[in-house]
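Risk mitigation, structural track. In case the binding assays with zinc ion fail to produce interpretable data, a predicted complex structure has been prepared as a fallback.
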Amino acid sequence: MPFCPYCKKKITMSKAFCSDDCKENYFHLVSIRVPRPFINRLYTFHNESEREIEIIKYSKLHNMKLDLLRKKVYGDAIKAGFLDGSSTNSALQSTYGG
Ligand SMILES: [Zn+2]
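Fallback model:
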């Protein structure tokens, strides 16, 4: 049984995504590029609330969906070693419902 590449729900063989929303979000997320210096700045100079403001500004500036940008930033921060992936994943799951 294949899985929806965005939300990881099980889907039928004939489908690539479980819904049009997932398809749209998936490609939107893939297209988001966050420069490393931006991530560094967020996690070096900003506290949590300032970081949120910067992420909102960035999403507006580049016309990105905020929740997807946030997801991308967290993912990149984990890769960059600013966040611990295992604890952040569970925190994200509780925030976004998986
Ligand atoms: Zn899906």
